């Protein structure tokens, strides 16, 4: 049976979410990310892309290209909320799907020809997502993941494209080699140095030459270039970890501020756990020194989502990690081994007053944002760092449990 694989992408997702809250941003050059020397562009509007700006570009460069750009810090809590809305819509309407990021999905429509047809179902899904969430989206449809993803990029913004069966190789041929998923900067530089700039040139290379050049990765890219990709759509499961990292504007040795930052990060993560009815049983702390040496330690704990249980573990791990007394560039916190379920009170450590306090704080956070109520030590630390993640905002990253 021939496959029908859909790739669906939420257009300029972070910016689109911001536009839902502020209509004045529509059509303007908008950048999401930290406005600092070390900041990078997490997302940008199509108006900003017209100036040559792209995701992962240094913010300083982006502002030079477009001085009038509107820079927003971003709110990952809002982004995850909208991502979850889209995920639930897809879950309810398709037989099998894979979520590869907060704004990107694959759907296996194989076999639907007997009923309504993949194109009709994909078109209806696209429209329903836009109507229900207000988020523009684009999709590509073909016999495999690679071709569908490339087709989606052709369809953007807010478009749709189907690659007819049997035309995959012809469709890919004129495109730059960077269009192939898996061709990164180093690989592209190597291939271009050999005169391989377009996919049609890679299609003509012997597969054994690609293996000599790139190892095991070479034949994989060669097959993708020729429109061959048998990788399945992996059923998506609930996330199994939640984490956040901070890169400091200036490398620091101020232990008080470092501990304050860890406090703020752990608080925010614990709130996300409680909001999602999740518990963690493993806490990890990560530090990166100014010389880029990175160290991580973790510790198992009883299942919990309470700050007063988690915070001592976070600080204990930091004390064990920070033994070089050198300047630190980055700190991170991660909760893993997540399970569903509300917190069960521990008669030896929890009190009714503590539980009531959590409920009151979380009620305020849900209404006004997860940074409105926090410990003083964490609030003081907010000014010295930025998120080092795809959101580049002030709330934590929620990581999907998936296979690439």
Give your account of this protein's structure:
The chain is of the alpha+beta class and 404 residues long. It folds into three domains: 1-143, Reverse transcriptase/Diguanylate cyclase domain (Alpha-Beta Plaits), CATH 3.30.70.270; 169-225, DNA polymerase, domain 1, CATH 1.10.150.20; 241-399, Dna Ligase, domain 1. The chain has 15 helices and 15 strands. A hairpin with a 7-residue loop joins strand 2 (30-33) and strand 3. The longest helix has 21 residues, at 255-275. The protein starts with a strand and ends in a 5-residue tail after the last strand.
Strand content: 15-25%
Kindly, what is the distance between the CA atoms of the first and last residues, rounded to a whole number of angstroms?
24 Å
**Helix share, percent:** 25-40%
Query: How many domains is the backbone divided into?
Result: 3
Describe this structure in a few short sentences.
The chain is of the alpha+beta class and 404 residues long.
Give me the secondary-structure topology.
Blueprint: E1 5-10, H1 13-21, E2 30-33, E3 41-44, H2 46-49, H3 59-65, E4 70-72, H4 76-93, E5 97-101, E6 104-108, H5 118-133, E7 137-142, H6 145-155, E8 160-162, H7 168-172, H8 185-193, H9 199-204, H10 207-214, H11 217-225, E9 241-252, H12 255-275, E10 278-289, E11 294-304, H13 307-321, E12 328-336, E13 339-340, H14 352-368, H15 376-381, E14 385-387, E15 397-399
Parallel strand pairs: 2-4, 7-8
Antiparallel strand pairs: 1-6, 1-7, 2-3, 5-6, 9-12, 9-14, 9-15, 10-11, 10-12, 10-13
Helix pairs in contact: 4-5, 10-11, 12-13
């Amino acid at each position: 049976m021939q496959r029908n694989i859909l790739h669906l992408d939420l257009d300029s997702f972070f910016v689109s979410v911001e536009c839902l809250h502020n209509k004045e941003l529509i059509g303007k050059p908008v950048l999401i990310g930290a406005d600092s020397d070390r900041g990078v562009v997490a997302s940008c509007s199509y108006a900003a892309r017209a100036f040559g700006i792209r995701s992962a570009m240094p913010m300083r460069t982006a502002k030079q290209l477009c001085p009038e750009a509107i820079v927003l810090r971003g709110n990952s809590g809002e982004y995850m909320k909208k991502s979850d809305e889209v995920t639930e819509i897809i879950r309810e309407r398709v037989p099998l799907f894979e979520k590869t990021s907060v704004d990107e999905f694959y759907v296996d429509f194989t076999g639907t020809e007997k009923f309504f047809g993949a194109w009709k179902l994909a078109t209806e899904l696209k429209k329903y997502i836009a109507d229900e969430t207000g988020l523009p989206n684009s999709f590509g449809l073909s016999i495999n993941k690679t071709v569908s993803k490339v087709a989606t990029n052709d369809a953007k913004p807010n478009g749709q494209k189907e690659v007819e069966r049997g035309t995959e190789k012809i469709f890919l041929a004129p495109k730059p080699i960077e269009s192939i998923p898996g061709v990164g900067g180093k690989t592209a530089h190597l291939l271009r140095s050999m005169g391989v700039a377009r996919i049609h040139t890679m299609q003509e290379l012997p597969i054994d030459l690609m293996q000599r050049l790139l190892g095991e990765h070479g034949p994989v890219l060669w097959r993708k270039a020729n429109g061959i990709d048998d990788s399945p759509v992996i059923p998506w499961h609930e996330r199994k970890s939640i984490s956040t990292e901070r890169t400091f504007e200036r490398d620091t040795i101020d232990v008080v501020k470092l501990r304050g930052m860890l406090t703020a990060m752990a608080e925010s993560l614990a709130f996300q756990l409680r909001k999602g009815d999740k518990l963690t049983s493993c806490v990890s702390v990560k530090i990166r020194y100014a010389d880029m040496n990175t160290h991580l330690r973790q510790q198992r704990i009883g299942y919990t989502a309470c700050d007063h249980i988690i915070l001592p573990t976070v600080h204990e791990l930091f004390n064990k990690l920070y033994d070089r007394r050198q300047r630190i560039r980055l700190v991170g916190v991660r909760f893993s081994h997540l399970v569903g379920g509300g917190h069960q009170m521990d008669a030896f450590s929890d009190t009714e007053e503590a539980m009531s306090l959590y409920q009151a704080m979380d009620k305020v956070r849900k209404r006004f944002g997860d940074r409105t109520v926090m410990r003083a030590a964490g609030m003081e630390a907010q000014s010295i760092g930025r998120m080092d993640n795809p959101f580049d905002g002030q709330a934590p990253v929620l990581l999907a449990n998936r296979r690439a």
